[in-house]
User: Which sequence fits this backbone?
């Protein structure tokens, strides 16, 4: 009971470094499963099918939703994103820690279905640093950057609804991943997740 896996939900604005933190977290760890989302967004440079996302058409995405194959889904910046249910369910039931890197709307959908899910928000050191990181990516148009910044403001306002907040300092993603591991350990040892059954002598 004490070593049951956790459902970890990692959110935070685009450009905050969630992906790097999650990669540090799951790298070489067989008891962590990183969920691969489905999306109707077009692949970016270097993104790979089945590794970064499952890239599908909008019609195919909605077919999967209708078949009940998504744990949650949302429309974000004009594209659908969702968590495929069967793989995450299989790994979760096998006792692994399942990690979803998803935005706030999806995070709250999951929390209402699975209240034991642990919500972790990754916060930038400042708004200015977030903007600089987004611009540094060089993968987006100015219009897309402005849209992402306005979405970021909304997401930052939802931070108090998360169970934990980690400020991801520049170049310190490995430290942030370490904090996530410490949260996992504390959650696993929490009395709310189960009390060891000790048989006391008469
Ligand atoms: P991007 O297009 O930059 O890869 O992702 C945009 C946003 O969608 C990010 O905040 C990312 O965390 C979120 N996202 C990725 N996959 C999912 C998903 O399966 N469900 C939800 N709700 N959001 C997702």
Assistant:
């Amino acid at each position: 009971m004490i070593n049951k896996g956790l459902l970890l939900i990692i959110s935070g604005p685009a450009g905050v470094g969630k992906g790097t933190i999650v990669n540090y977290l799951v790298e070489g760890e067989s008891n962590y499963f990183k969920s691969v989302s489905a999306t109707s967004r077009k692949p970016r440079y270097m993104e790979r099918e089945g590794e970064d996302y499952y890239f599908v058409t909008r019609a195919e995405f909605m077919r999967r939703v209708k078949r009940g194959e998504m744990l949650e889904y949302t429309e974000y910046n004009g594209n659908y994103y969702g968590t495929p249910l069967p793989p995450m369910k299989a790994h979760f039931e096998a006792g692994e820690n399942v990690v979803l890197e998803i935005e706030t709307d999806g995070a709250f959908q999951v929390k209402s279905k699975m209240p034991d899910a642990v919500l972790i928000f990754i916060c930038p050191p400042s708004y200015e640093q977030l903007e600089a990181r987004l611009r540094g990516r060089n993968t987006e148009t100015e219009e897309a950057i402005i849209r992402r910044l306005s979405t970021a403001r909304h997401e930052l306002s939802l931070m108090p609804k998360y169970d934990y907040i980690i400020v991801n300092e520049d170049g310190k993603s490995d430290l942030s991943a370490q904090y996530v591991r410490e949260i996992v350990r504390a959650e696993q040892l929490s009395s709310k997740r189960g009390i060891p059954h000790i048989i006391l002598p008469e």
Remarks:
- Residues 14, 37, 41, 72, 74, 76, 81-83, 101-103, 105-106 surround guanosine-5'-monophosphate (CB under 6 Å).
- The longest helix spans residues 173-189.
- The two ends are 25 Å apart (CA to CA).
- The mean pLDDT is 94.
